[in-house]
Amino acid sequence: MKLKILAATAAIAMGLSTGAAKAETCGEVSITEMNWASAAVVTSVAKFLMEQGYGCDVKVIPSSTNPAIASVAETGEPDVLTELWVAGSPAYDKLEAAGKVKPLTKVLSDGGVEGWWIPKYLLDAHPELATIEGVKKNPALVGGRFHQCPDGWACQIVNANNIKAAGLEAAGIEVFQHGSGETMATSIASAFEDKAPWFGYYWAPTSVLGRYDMVRVDVGAFDADAHACNSKKECANPKLSPYPQSRVLTVVTDKFAAANPVVTDLLRNVTFTNKQMGSVLAWQEANKASADEAAVHFLTTYTDVWGGWLNADAKAKLSSLLK
Asked: What are the two backbone dihedrals, phi and then psi, of residue 121, each rounded to the nearest 5 degrees?
């Protein structure tokens, strides 16, 4: 099994052929790799299957939600946007309505979970922190800080408007904006190591929420209109609302779908449950593995899942991994 993993890792990392001739009908494909862990795994899995099963020449484009959507609107590329969290991005709705992109599947079949969180040990010690009002009345108990997601992430805009609506800064809670998803994860790990306060945004599925026991702070009832406004940078009158369960999609451009129906059918099948993805991410963290190595772990652990994604020709090309 170890040799099989190493061989597959090499194939993913170097784009080696498994022995099948390149398909003439696929050609070059550009696909996003969003800058968080689960998205990188999704991209590595999809890249491997497209290259080794369908003969594509895949180019990975590092990106995040809003820049990727803006790029498609302006240039028609990348061809494939995967793990796109669309709830906080009204620009996506315009693209879909205009027919410029086609949603293929919920790449996270259970949807994404987003919110404002504190460690359970903090809630156990201070039950009043269960609600946003309790947090505002006790800023020192959460360390006087809100951990905000990086620029370019759709959640940054939603959080900024919710922060304003909640009056967090007026309550004495500083907004600390992280430069990357990695520093956000590190801040949670450090807090748990020291049993220190932590309050901020996070999402699932992630290895972090799989490993650390966190509780969402109750910020009130969901308000669809408020969330729609909060998703816009120019929201004139933000009102506090929790996140809805997010649609997390793989979408392709209309041009790509028309030119590559077979590969489009593959991408329509590429979907992960939160449990599957959480398991893969926990393995990745425990083994200090790369996204490519985590993809290999998925490919070798869940052959019964991804084998069903393939058409007959691709299944034949990847038969050595399906044994």
From this structure: -65, -30
**Tokens in use for 83?**
């793990």
pTM of this prediction? 0.75
> Are the C-beta atoms of 317 and 310 separated by less than 8 Å?
no
Q: Which long-range contacts (CB under 8 A, 24 or more apart) does 10-17 make?
A: 11/48, 11/51, 11/52, 12/44, 12/47, 12/48, 12/292, 12/295, 12/296, 13/292, 15/51, 15/57, 15/58, 17/51, 17/52
From first to last of its 323 residues, the chain has per-residue pLDDT tens of 444 455 555 555 454 444 444 444 689 999 999 988 999 999 999 999 999 999 999 999 999 988 999 999 999 999 999 999 887 577 899 999 999 999 999 999 999 889 999 999 999 999 999 999 999 999 999 999 999 999 988 899 999 999 999 999 999 999 999 999 999 999 999 999 999 999 999 998 888 887 899 999 999 999 999 999 999 999 999 999 999 988 899 999 999 999 999 999 999 999 999 889 988 998 998 999 999 999 999 999 999 999 999 999 999 999 988 87
